[in-house]
Design brief:
293 residues; Arc Repressor Mutant, subunit A; D-Maltodextrin-Binding Protein, domain 2; 9-stranded mixed beta sheet; two-stranded antiparallel sheet; 11 strands
Length: 293
């Protein structure tokens, strides 16, 4: 079996289309299609269904995907072992993270890595609504729930809290509610419900059973800025809000706890660049754990 054919199969399976895989591999569309047919012939099984919208794995393709990913993991491990004596860290690591954590915490703490390792490239991207480490849409992900499916390595980073906050100007002009029932008399700022990426982030009802946001923003940092402008009372990450002197805590409801997890696919575990970046994130959080408490 030709490893290059397996590599192309993985690219198509992850892209969900031959054209997308061809672009990612920098190969001709016809070449990718021909190599997939050759692999299917060698295995004696159809691996993909060709659809008008792209491709989908057949049952045989699903079974072969697990085999191909093990082969990929072995290949990565072998390359890592052979390069074990080289201390240089190079290549690109893409980190997917929620904007609250990614922008407010990680962005200012990753530059030291690129300064230390000149051949290392880091990409920090927001976690979209649909996100897959198996499809290599990121190398490392920061999630708010521990994954329960797939060949993923997960490590808890830290617990964090969310609470009610308002700007000082809003508090002076409108006063602050002392109970949940009094929240109804205030303008509320929240998230866009159908754009919430995780059930753990649909937390408004935990603050008030009839929470009704007059101003909804699909960004944690956007909500922070709206609250700072005096637009109303919002549910904010405490580690962000506490650092802003123009915000005050609202005691109408108790803060709630959530957690951040660091996750990557098992197949990239041997890569030194993955271990270096993951270790840096873990150390940065541990060093400043007090921010989240």
């Amino acid at each position: 079996m030709n490893w290059d054919d397996v590599r192309i199969f993985l690219a198509v399976a992850r892209a969900g289309q031959i054209l997308g895989a061809a672009r990612r591999l920098e190969l001709n569309h016809a070449t990718v299609s021909r190599r997939i047919v050759a692999l299917e012939d060698s295995l004696g099984a159809k691996l993909f269904r060709r659809l008008t919208t792209g491709t989908e794995l057949t049952p045989a393709g699903e079974r072969f995907l697990a085999v191909a990913e093990r082969m990929e993991a072995d290949m990565i491990a072998a390359r890592s072992e052979l390069a074990g004596g080289d201390d240089d860290v190079s290549g690109t690591v893409r980190i997917g993270a929620p904007d609250g954590f990614g922008v407010a915490f990680l962005a200012s703490r990753l530059g030291a890595l690129t300064a230390q390792h000149r051949d290392l490239r880091i990409q920090l991207v927001p976690v979209p609504r649909s996100f897959s480490l198996s499809r290599r849409e990121a190398d490392i992900a920061i999630t708010t729930e521990r994954p329960t499916e797939g060949r993923l390595v997960a490590q808890k980073l830290v617990d964090y809290s969310l609470g009610l906050y308002a700007s000082r100007s809003y508090a002076e002009a409108n006063g602050l509610p002392a109970t949940q029932s009094e929240l109804r008399a205030h303008r509320l700022i929240g998230y866009v419900p159908d754009l919430v990426v995780s059930s753990s982030l649909a937390y408004a009802q935990e603050f008030s059973p009839d929470w009704d946001a007059a101003f909804a923003i699909s960004s944690a940092l956007g909500q922070v800025e709206a609250v700072r402008s005096g637009a109303g009372i919002g549910i904010l990450h405490s580690f962000i809000a506490r650092a802003l002197p123009d915000l005050v805590a609202v005691d109408a409801a108790r803060p709630i706890l959530r957690a951040y997890w660091l996750v990557y696919h098992e197949s990239v575990r041997p890569l030194r660049r993955i271990q270096v970046v993951a270790g840096h994130i873990l150390h940065a959080v541990e060093k400043e754990r007090r921010l989240f408490q």
